[in-house]
């Protein structure tokens, strides 16, 4: 167990000893073995298949969850889509086009029709979108809220597609319209300096705000970079940096592991620190959080002996009793020994030296039960032999984007080419050696 770790991150000495002199993350893909790269190619291609098969060809809206064998379940609501997944889906299209998994011209037209639909037809409020909608007609479902974080993930995909297709004038302009019309100022509480989590027509503006460090870094960066309705750069520093300590690992962020992953699936933060008063290295912070997640699982072997250095990972997921937002530091509520593949899969870009062996072990040991048409099932429990038949879209998406960033860094590069993103990052970050 490590000692003497700094409050926010591993020291360089400790980090290098743990990661066996882990190379710069953008160069790591060049050092993958042929076997590892083939494994990630198969996993990624299957993840893309989910977005291609379950995204509306005209709307781009992607189903929230489906069976991992592609079958249709009678009596189930098959048309609920998540707006955030459209952002993952647009990014998946860029990855697939670049890797030539299917005809790039087909993909380009899917991207074009999606952006056209959102510009012309999808209901929005001052540029913000409802969390859950009907895939066929875009209507609000489940009385869901106008969601700031789901809109941010949608916009991340829009900007990624804009930059990937920067030579296509229509795609570029449609993406610009979508970003420019989002009114970030409207949902900024000027009394606190914090962005609200949402709005709905029944109650109006939410009292809940992004008060603590979670998955909102992407949202704040997009708000600061907005070309039409920007929020102050100081908004970046308003959320509380909550410190966590898990078996000797100290880092910032008390939420499940996905809160470390989502923003950095798009935002290239490796080698960057923000300014005072935090001067925080967000990328290395997420490396530590990933190691802490494994350490937490290992600490539970007395209760769940199947956890090991190659079989670990807990983050928000399905379980035998339903969907649970578990996986926060040392929270044992409802914990039952479930393994969630996207915990390791979504952190491939942070700690491939522990995440890739874990995923390969899961497939080798349990593949016939947990690995299907769209990759890994959402969750499984080796202790009870339960395997979820479903995949959940955001968990499929984070594995795809994280794997691509590990292999090539392309998602980071495409998103980071946006001048609006670059302007925001100049206001927030400082490069260091």
Task: Describe the fold and architecture.
The chain has 15 helices and 18 strands. The N terminus is likely disordered. A hairpin with a 2-residue loop joins strand 13 and strand 14. Helix 5 runs parallel beside helix 7. The protein is globular, with a radius of gyration of 20 Å. The chain has one domain: Glycoside hydrolase 144 (GH144) (Glycosyltransferase, Alpha/alpha barrel), CATH 1.50.10. The chain has 433 residues and is of the alpha+beta class. Helices cover 42% and strands 11% of the residues. Strands 1-3-4 form a 3-stranded antiparallel sheet. A 3-stranded antiparallel sheet has the order 5-8-9.
Task: Label this structure with key terms.
3-stranded antiparallel β-sheet, 18 strands, disordered N terminus, 15 helices, Glycosyltransferase, 433 residues, alpha+beta
Q: In summary, what is this structure?
A:
This protein is an alpha+beta fold.
Looking across the biggest beta sheet, what order are the strands in? 1-3-4
CATH topology: Glycosyltransferase
Separation, N- and C-terminal Cα atoms = 28 Å
Class computed from helices, strands and strand pairing: alpha+beta
So, the CATH homologous superfamily? Glycoside hydrolase 144 (GH144)
Mean pLDDT: 90
Radius of gyration: 20 Å
Beta content comes to: 5-15%
Number of strands: 18
Helical residues, percent:
40-55%
Largest sheet report: 3 strands, antiparallel
Supply the CATH class: Mainly Alpha
CATH architecture: Alpha/alpha barrel
Which residues form runs of ≥5 with pLDDT under 50? Answer: 1-25
Number of helices: 15
Shape, per Cα inertia axes: globular
Total of domains: 1
